[in-house]
Design goal:
By secondary structure, this protein is of the alpha/beta class. It is built from 15 helices and 17 strands.
Length: 492
């Protein structure tokens, strides 16, 4: 009966949102880019089709039926794929023709949102934008990680230890209840992860879970070099952030991660170096891979419970405030069951990075601030980005960030088997990632919205009473959050 209901819901939703048959438009910032180019200059753009799946309708329907995460995943992925398949045909044929005429350098279709990357000269982009099946054309912006404000080597711990930040979020109290993240899959989208690091090697899903045998590409994605056999990290940032999520050395007992029993997976589209271009399109590819790694919409054991992102953009990068470009991909992931987290940014009172600045409702996008857990009063880090944000439906002010976690002098894993201290909101969001893993182990079918609400409701209030523009709802509390998640078990 549930399978029939799922298929009926899919049939009702798949038509998505269809706009009237008028020409598309070029985004204002892309217009600025094109105005400085000659007619023959090739520009990389993202062409959004008019027809898009209504993810809000899917989520509301799944919430009403108390759908499982597997049902949510299958409905969302099949809807997105069917929409793209049924509406991109004419555009792809048009692009084939232009490419055969030498007018298009490259194009690539996506289904996580109904859009196509096109690299072409200015006049061709303008021609594409005039088509009636196009909604809007955006510039394919470059992206970068939120670089740590400080980094220095860590001294050996001398044996078994639990990091200060991990203790501060009350993770050991949750471990004492029997929850370490076992059976939960976590993810990050970053510079990569050193799959051989002693704190992480045993729990990379590609080797730890027998269901991945022969398919390491389901647990590691390299969008540039296509080396999808074993995770690596040339930058170090991603290894550090993943360590804070789930790092623990089984030989020494040295624990730097909040959920040391969780499996992990990773994609590496951020700041690869070596002249490799890093653009929005590569992030799209990574999210698309993450939402269905094995290519089978009916399975969701391979889909992460949570993904933290320690990267973001600012106006200085040419990326406008409140830009909606990322939002559809993040919404697709969350509709399919993955909690998406973003570091707020290291710009202090200058404001949040994008897409952490989004406040279209109480849950999107979850932005994480950094506190100094080495100080017993847990002060907000001077660099931690503050609100308010004006990325609301009506442009009014909203409180951001949403939650806080340790982000000053955080010791975690580093490529080559060592450890370093780093400071930044990049170090804060992985703590929340680990807390989500513990929540999902305690209550596996909680919706994304419920997981976030639990985190907000159980946070240790800091700063001004209630939610504020420095700490959000306060310091994340793993123990209180897991207790609340358990209290909801009878309702899910």
């Amino acid at each position: 009966m549930k399978k029939l209901a799922l298929l009926l819901a899919l049939a009702m939703i798949i038509a998505g949102v269809s706009l009237t048959a008028v020409a598309g438009e070029i985004d204002g910032d892309l217009e600025g880019v094109l105005s400085g180019r000659t007619s023959g200059d090739v520009v990389s753009v993202l062409v959004y089709m008019k027809d898009q799946v209504d993810l809000t309708a899917i989520t509301e329907r799944m919430d009403a039926s108390e759908a499982t995460l597997r049902e949510r995943h299958e409905t969302v992925v099949r809807s997105l794929q069917a929409e793209a398949e049924s509406t991109q045909g004419e555009m792809l044929s048009f692009l084939d023709m232009l490419k055969s005429e030498g007018k298009v350098d490259f194009y690539q279709k996506f289904w996580i949102s109904n859009c196509i990357r096109v690299d072409a000269p200015k006049d061709v982009i303008e021609e594409i934008a005039r088509r009636s099946d196009v909604a809007k054309v955006y510039y394919n912006y470059g992206i970068e990680l939120i670089a740590p404000v400080d980094e220095h080597p860590a001294k050996p711990t001398g044996g078994k230890s639990v990091e200060t930040g991990v203790q501060a979020v009350n993770a050991p109290e949750v471990w004492a209840m029997g929850f370490h993240g076992e059976g939960v899959l976590v993810a990050n989208i970053d510079t990569g992860v050193d799959g051989s690091h002693p704190a992480l090697a045993a729990r990379w899903a590609g080797v730890a879970d027998p269901r991945y045998q022969g398919h390491p590409e389901w647990a590691w994605y390299d969008p540039y070099l296509g080396q999808n056999d074993f995770p690596y990290d040339d930058g170090g940032h991603g290894t550090h952030t993943m360590g804070t999520v789930t790092g623990a050395d089984p030989n020494t007992g040295d624990t730097v991660g909040v959920a040391p029993g969780a499996y992990w997976m990773a994609a590496a589209p951020i700041d690869r170096g070596g002249g490799i271009p890093t653009t929005v399109a590569n992030a799209i590819l990574s999210f698309q891979w993450m939402v269905d790694p094995d290519g089978d919409p009916s399975t969701n054991w391979d889909v992460p419970a949570v993904c933290s992102n320690s990267w973001g953009l600012m106006t200085a990068h040419g990326y406008p405030p409140c830009d909606t470009l990322f939002w559809s991909y993040l919404d697709a992931c969350e509709a399919a069951g993955t909690v998406i987290l973003f570091s707020a940014g290291n710009e202090g009172t200058s404001g949040l990075r994008r897409p952490a600045d989004r406040a279209t409702d109480d849950y999107r996008t979850c932005a994480v601030a950094a506190v100094d857990a080495n100080d017993p009063s847990w002060p907000i880090a001077s660099f931690s980005s503050r609100g308010p944000t004006y990325c609301t439906p009506d442009g009014s002010a909203a409180i951001k960030p949403d939650i806080a976690a340790p982000g000053v002098d955080v010791r975690s894993s580093y490529p080559g088997g060592g450890y370093v201290y780093m400071s930044g909101t990049s170090m804060a969001s992985p703590h929340v990632n680990g807390v989500v893993a513990l929540i999902r182990q305690a209550n596996p079918n909680l919706s994304v919205q419920m997981v976030k609400q639990i985190i907000y409701d159980t946070a240790h209030d800091l700063g001004d009473p209630g939610e504020d523009n420095s700490y959000g709802w306060g310091m994340v509390d793993a123990y209180a959050a897991v207790q609340m998640a358990l209290s909801y078990l009878n309702g899910y």
